[in-house]
Design brief:
The structure holds two protein chains of two kinds.
Chain A (H helix, E strand, L loop, with lengths): L14 H14 L2 H12 L4 H18 L3 E2 L6 E9 L2 E6 L16 H16 L4 E4 H11 L8 E4 L1 H9 L3 E7 L3 H13 L6 E5 L18 E9 L7 H7 L5
Parallel strand pairs in A: 3-4, 3-6, 4-5, 6-7
Antiparallel strand pairs in A: 1-2, 2-8
Helix pairs in contact in A: 2-3, 3-4
Chain B lengths: L20 H8 L7 H12 L3 H20 L6 H8 L5 H13 L5 H14 L2 H4 L6 H13 L7 H4 L2 H11 L2 H19 L5 H14 L1 E7 L7 H23 L10 E4 L1 H4 L8 H22 L3 E3 L7 H13 L9 E6 L5 H15 L3 E6 L4 H11 L10 H16 L1 H4 L2 E6 L3 H14 L7 E5 L4 H10 L3 E8 L5 H13 L4 H6 L5 H4 L3 H6 L30 H15 L20 E3 L2 E2 L2 E2 L10 E6 L2 E10 L3 H20 L2 H17 L1 H12 L3 H26 L3 E4 L5 E8 L2 E5 L7 H12 L3 E5 L5 H13 L7 E3 L4 H10 L3 E7 L2 H12 L8 E4 L5 E4 L5 H13 L11 E5 H16 L19 H17 L1 E5 L15 E4 L14 E7 L4 H10 L2 E2 L1 E5 L3 H10 L4 E4 L16 E2 L17 E9 L1
Parallel strand pairs in B: 1-2, 1-8, 2-3, 3-4, 4-5, 5-6, 6-7, 7-8, 9-13, 16-17, 16-19, 17-18, 19-20, 21-22, 21-27, 22-25, 24-25, 27-28
Antiparallel strand pairs in B: 10-11, 12-13, 14-15, 15-30, 23-24, 26-29
């Protein structure tokens, strides 16, 4: 009987594992720092994808960056903030050009606009992104120099299935005009164990009726409430002040 | 506004206290949260001086303050500390935080980290910018850093800023720790008369020589366990013995012998209204033994004041003891009355009547009150209709003088010996004037002050007049001091406080001698506009109301209305046993489709189900007819057809329906609470919270719709074009809700969907359909059309499946287990139609992290509530308590002791803390888990089960110590707490473990170290993080609720993003 020695070499990290390892730091960076980096990244994009990217950044910043102080009883502090959900796979299925063609041109532009919208939104809200395809590659190359390694990754089409099946994938942002294909993605995600992965599908590449809506970024965040009992230490000094405050 | 049962001024009529005590008792409770404006208007005449009286008291107060300020010794070390680090500065608070926690931290690493944290966050140097306060400041730092007062020389030591900076930077944390501990001991020495009673008596001698006497207080907070209570009893007993011996041998006059003050909550682990039966027997017996001992030794006893909720309980116990033979004929058994309480005056009248009837004079210490801030906060949290205390400081001062007027009146003096506790020179001077005016001699009353405070003030008082001044002196170890110290400093350490201003020589005397009546009358309103009533807490919506079950006048009439629906007599047995004529209150539930009931013949056992109370399976609550697949289709047909019209209904009209629904639920509060008790097994407070949450959901979403969804909004699209965007409903929304919040979550989902224009088919949990049916009936009464919302009771296999397979379902809100959410999601995805919004709120493996800076008593209270309230059947409930090993041996026995004091029982009784679990399936699963855990872990404690537990599905609350969270596979939805010890340096690893579990719902943190809290907050992937409090009971619009990962999809219920997910954003127009 022979014994086969197990190789002690560690397997290379999967894209999802890589994303998982950078998620906490990217998420902790905060909206402003992420937006600052991404605005720079957007500069190299053609006009329309760039506009889309900058619009999403501004929108997300306006609607989601601020931590909101909630009203409530005295002696407690309640804050609501928005954080990334985890790794998003951003995919365009409307990219007609064969791999290796020129950068974004007329035929790839709708895909580039949509994908830029997805990727920049996913990133600015604190999620690492994995993308694929030719346009994905171009966007990844534009963004990668401005963010930490692993925050955006590009994978080969051959790796897509494994990535979709792996956990914990927070969601897929999909640009796809084919309703049947969208449903198929939906079923694949629903079939997975673990968390309910989000499918953020844009089914109208011509009008971008989902991506171009003002509250699109909400789909990429998870909210966090922090409730602090501020009277636990040293009593409710603020309230004591109110008790002797004059209205004049 | 309610009419009052008596006029305040009537109390000055000698006939008033001739009334029977029980008649006067009836006047107390209705004033609990009486309209402040109305009541103060009545009190003012009792406190209002004539011009001559005003002049007298102003002159007397001015003279007193001037002579205090002349006194070189008037500014003590503590005073100077207060002056610079007043508690309305950040640094003042931080200093107190450090003081409060440092001495109890057992491990050096945590103590050093804590010190570093405190020193880092404050701008200490800014306090040294003011050259006037430099020496005070420097002395303070000297005190804190070296443990003794050091004289600082500005030339030698450099600028103040440098000095403080250098001190902090050059000294390493261990050195600071040592110095801080030393400094805290010095502070303790200032505020504690002695570490034990002997030391206190000996240290008190010098003051007694000056003419003071004492009332000793044994330091300590409320007891949580019977061991704590026994410890305090022993302390009181030995103190009484020592004081008695000292009194016997004293060279001081026996007219002012030292007494002892007793805190009832320290002598019983459950000093609460709900445990009145225990209080009136067990605690009665305990206090009586102390009385017998004290009377024998000639040591007077004063019962200390507690929070407003316990006032009526304290009075009832006092009355019982006062009438006991142990007290009859004594005259030294007294109690404390708080003037900030709106009930103070009738309480005093009642006491006077008691004393008059029995003939034994009662000493009464009149204080202003020490729990003002927590009273206000508690009422705001519980939605009480008003406050038990006044909202202005000067109103409390007015009430104090009104009470003093009553106490010093001739007809009262014979029955009550008033003891005026105050550190306010104006109050003291005014009382002296009032006494003269009412003909009371200096022997007819006394003053009281706290040890370590008001020394200079009272030194001046007793210099001039022969009046007794008693010092309330804490006795105990320094580490028990801090909660007391912080409380005292808070009362007196704010910039605006009298004590603070008295010693601040720059503050003009004339500003300190304003009569509170003059000040209050000069206000635009008698109530404080800065402190909103609990029901007006929110600017844009009404807060839900909750009755206070601790208060007789609030709770008794409310309970009577619930009782009408309870009927727990034998009439209410299951139908087969029902032999008597009187029908019990029974509810019916059935599918409600198109506004019409779809009933089934009771003989159809497949479809018609009897509902039994979880706490007693002999009790029938009603019958539920389940929906069939056909009914489901009919409902969806109607809902789909109704969508265009409902969607086109103006959003404000839909919002109006929600507001009406909120009001209707409050109108039907008693019935809904009875349903919560009988169908869901919920306790009284849980049932109140349930209705409140449902009401809040309605009002919050109504307000959200009006503010954000009523009108189309304008946006710039990414090309710079102006877009007009409108949110519209998705279509037919399916709402599938759980049994654990059968009204709140059910309504929350349904009204959210309706509010933005969806029509709804709702499937409640099969265990709790009766309350859901009642809610849907109310919803229709509120104006929601019958075809816009349909109720489909039944199980998942038939009804749930039929709903989720229907291709017309355009969105789904689900709360329940993670596994069911996945199944539903798969069914929806398999329909072959476009993906729809799925909002799933699922389970958690919720943890609480406790480090060694935390306050163990608070940890135990919060952990117990988080783990066991609602029998642990909350998504947010605590499952795994991580305790830093350095304090585990202290905290775990406290948990064990506190669990022994919990009452498991019938949920509709006030005495019950924990009710049943929902059904036999849940019970079986939980009991099996407990058995498994007993094998792999170590049982800490199980709360006792009552005999009646066999009649229902009860599970004894259980705490088990385990080694790691890895021993737990999934969420166990019940009253089971797992406890894990951890080492301080393992904290990050624990956060990783929690994150890696995939669940992310709630997390509790108990730590005084803000750096630690911030680190946990930044790393833990949870939806709701709670710091230094319990982790259950999220409030709509205040703490939006929901998890991430395996715990849910979001958005959070009761939050600003929730309604968005029930809509589609539609571009109406786009233009260049």
């Amino acid at each position: 009987m022979t014994t086969v020695m197990q190789a002690t070499m560690q397997k290379p990290a999967t894209p999802l594992q890589t994303a998982g390892s950078v998620f906490e730091a990217w998420n902790a960076l905060g909206f402003n720092a992420r937006a600052h980096a991404l605005v720079q990244a957007a500069q190299s994009l053609p006009e329309q994808p760039q506009k889309m990217a900058l619009w999403q950044l501004a929108n997300a910043q306006k609607k989601l960056a601020q931590t909101q102080t909630m009203p409530g009883p005295t002696g407690e502090l309640n804050e609501l903030s928005n954080l990334g959900r985890g790794c998003f796979l951003c995919l365009s299925l409307i990219d007609p050009s064969p791999i290796g063609q020129s950068p974004i041109d007329h035929s790839t532009e709708p895909s580039a606009i949509g994908l830029a919208g997805q990727i920049f939104t996913a990133l600015v809200t604190g999620n690492p992104v994995i993308t694929a395809g030719q346009v994905g590659q171009i966007l990844m190359e534009a963004i990668a120099p401005f963010v930490a390694q692993g925050v955006i990754q590009h994978i080969a089409d051959s790796e897509l299935d494994a990535t979709i099946e792996a956990s914990p994938l927070a969601g897929i942002a999909l640009l796809c005009d084919d309703a049947a294909a969208v449903n198929a993605f939906n079923m694949r995600l629903a079939a997975k164990d673990g968390l309910i992965a989000q499918l953020v599908a844009e089914t109208n590449s011509a009008t971008l009726s989902t991506i171009a809506q003002p509250h699109y970024a909400l789909r990429f965040v998870t909210e966090r409430t922090v409730s602090i009992n501020t009277t636990a230490i040293g009593g409710n000094a603020t309230l004591l002040e109110l008790g002797s405050l004059n209205e004049e | 506004m309610k009419s009052l049962l008596f006029n305040a001024i009537d109390t000055l009529d000698p006939q008033f206290i001739q009334q029977a005590p029980q008649d006067l008792w009836a006047l107390i409770s209705p004033l609990y949260a009486v309209d402040e404006e109305q009541w103060l208007a009545q009190l003012l005449p009792l406190a209002k001086p004539s011009q001559a009286e005003l002049n007298n008291s102003t002159t007397a107060a001015t003279t007193l303050i001037a002579s205090v300020r002349k006194d070189d010794n008037s500014v003590s070390m503590i005073d100077s500390l207060l002056l610079e680090y007043s508690l309305d500065t950040k640094e003042g608070i931080l200093l107190m935080c450090l003081a409060e926690a440092l001495m109890r931290v057992p491990d050096k690493a945590t103590a050093d980290a804590f010190i570093k944290d405190r020193l880092r966050v404050a701008d200490w140097a800014s306090h040294a910018q003011n050259s006037d306060s430099f020496f005070v400041n420097a002395s303070t730092w000297g005190l804190l850093l070296t443990g003794k007062i050091v004289t600082m020389n500005e030339n030698k030591d450099g600028t103040p800023g440098n000095l403080v900076g250098r001190m902090v930077n050059r000294v390493s944390e261990p050195v600071i720790r040592k110095a801080m501990n030393q400094a805290m001991k010095i502070m303790g020495h200032q505020f504690v008369l002695g570490r034990d009673i002997k030391e206190a008596l000996s240290r008190g001698n010098s003051y007694r020589d000056k003419g003071y006497t004492y009332s000793f207080d044994m330091l300590g907070e409320a007891a949580l366990t019977s061991d704590d209570a026994a410890k305090y009893l022993k302390a009181y007993q030995s103190a009484i013995t020592a004081i008695g011996q000292d009194n016997a041998s004293t060279r001081h006059s026996d007219t002012s012998l030292p007494t002892i003050s007793i805190k009832l909550s320290a002598l019983h682990p459950r000093y609460e209204v709900g445990c009145k039966a225990r209080v009136m027997t067990e605690l009665f017996a305990t206090v009586k033994t102390l009385i017998i001992q004290a009377r024998k030794l000639g040591v007077g006893i004063t019962i200390d004041a507690e929070e407003a909720d316990r006032l009526e309980l304290s009075l009832a116990l006092f009355e019982a003891l006062y009438h006991d033979e142990a007290v009859r004929g004594w005259g030294l058994f007294g109690l404390v009355v708080q003037a900030y309480s709106k009930r103070a005056l009738p309480v005093l009248a009642w006491i006077a009547a008691l004393a008059q009837a029995q003939g034994d004079r009662i000493p009464i210490r009149l204080v202003k009150g020490a729990y003002w801030d927590s009273e206000i906060k508690l009422c705001q949290q519980r939605g009480i209709h008003g406050y038990p205390v006044y909202t202005r400081k000067e109103s409390t001062d007015v009430a104090y003088l009104a009470c003093a007027h009553f106490l010093l009146s001739e007809h009262v003096r014979a029955h009550i010996f008033p003891q005026f506790a105050s550190h306010n020179a104006h109050t003291i001077a005014t009382i002296q004037c009032l006494a003269t005016q009412l003909g009371a001699t200096n022997k007819a009353f006394e003053f009281q002050r706290l040890h370590g405070m008001g020394d200079a003030l009272y030194d001046n008082v007793i210099k001039g007049v022969d009046v007794c001044v008693r010092i309330y002196a804490p006795v105990g170890s320094h580490k028990d001091l801090l909660p007391y110290l912080v409380r005292r400093l808070l009362e007196n350490g704010a910039n605006s406080s009298f004590v603070h201003r008295l010693i601040d020589a720059s503050y003009p005397i004339e500003q300190l001698v304003h009569h509170p009546v003059t000040t209050l009358e000069s206000r635009k309103s008698l109530t404080n506009p800065h402190i909103k009533l609990p029901t007006h807490l929110f600017d844009d919506r009404k807060n839900s109301f909750g009755p206070n079950i601790e208060i007789e006048s609030d709770w008794t009439p409310f309970k009577a209305k619930i009782d009408a629906f309870m009927d727990t007599t034998p009439n209410n047995l299951v139908p087969s046993d029902s032999t008597q004529n009187k029908p019990a209150k029974q509810w019916r539930a059935y599918p409600i489709v198109g506004g019409q009931p779809v009933t089934t013949q009771p003989s159809n056992k497949e479809q018609s189900h009897t509902v039994l109370s979880p706490y007693d399976h002999q009790q029938c609550v009603g019958t539920v007819d389940w929906a069939t697949a056909t009914t489901v289709t009919q409902a969806i047909d109607l809902a789909a057809a109704a969508f265009p019209k409902w969607s086109a209904t103006p959003a404000t009209q839909r919002a109006d329906c929600l507001d009406r629904m909120a009001d209707l639920m409050e109108d039907n509060y008693p019935e809904l609470m009875a349903l919560c008790h009988r169908e869901a097994g919920k306790t009284i407070q849980d049932s109140i919270d349930e209705v409140r949450e449902a009401v809040d959901f309605c009002r919050y979403y109504a307000q959200q719709v009006r503010s954000h969804f009523a009108e189309p909004s304008h946006h710039q699209d990414f090309m710079g074009h102006t877009q007009i965007v409108q949110h519209i409903g998705c279509g037919v929304f399916a709402c599938i809700s759980p049994w654990n919040f059968p009204l709140a979550i059910f309504m929350g989902q349904v009204v959210a969907a309706l509010a933005v224009g969806n029509t709804v088919v709702a499937k409640p949990a099969e265990q709790t359909s009766l309350i859901a049916a009642r809610a849907v009936e109310l919803l229709h009464s509120a104006g929601v059309p019958g075809d816009a919302v349909h109720l489909l009771p039944g199980d998942g296999a038939t009804v749930g499946n039929a709903i989720t397979r229907d291709t017309r379902i355009a969105g789904l809100a689900f709360t329940g287990s993670t596994g069911t959410a996945q199944l539903i999601n798969r069914t929806l995805a398999a329909r072959g139609v476009a993906p729809i919004p799925v909002i799933a709120e699922t389970g958690g493996q919720n943890a609480m992290l406790v480090d060694s800076t935390s306050l163990p008593e608070q940890v135990v209270r919060d952990a117990m509530r988080s783990a066991f309230a609602s029998a642990g059947q909350r998504c947010s409930a605590l499952r795994v308590l991580f305790i830093q090993e350095d304090i585990a041996d202290k905290v775990i026995p406290m948990i064990k002791g506190a669990m022994q004091e919990q009452t498991v029982g019938l949920p509709y009784l006030h005495s019950t803390d924990i009710g049943p679990v929902i059904d036999q399936k849940a019970q079986k699963m939980l009991l099996e888990h407990i058995e498994d855990m007993k094998k792999t872990g170590k049982l800490i404690a199980q709360s006792p089960l009552p005999k009646l537990a066999q009649q229902g599905t009860f599970v004894a609350p259980t705490a088990i110590e385990i080694d790691s969270i890895g021993q737990l596979s999934d969420e166990k939805f019940g009253p089971i707490l797992h406890v894990i010890r951890y080492k301080a340096h393992e904290l990050d690893g624990i956060i990783d473990t929690i994150n890696n579990s995939g669940f992310g719902l709630t997390l509790g943190v108990h730590s005084r170290n803000e750096t630690t809290c911030a680190r946990i907050a930044s790393r833990a992937r949870v939806g709701n993080l709670y710091i230094n409090r319990d982790q259950v009971g999220a409030v709509v619009g205040v703490q939006p609720f929901g998890g991430q990962g395996l715990s849910g999809t979001g958005p959070k219920a009761g939050g600003p993003h929730y309604l968005h997910r029930f809509t589609i954003e539609q571009t109406l127009r786009s233009s260049l």
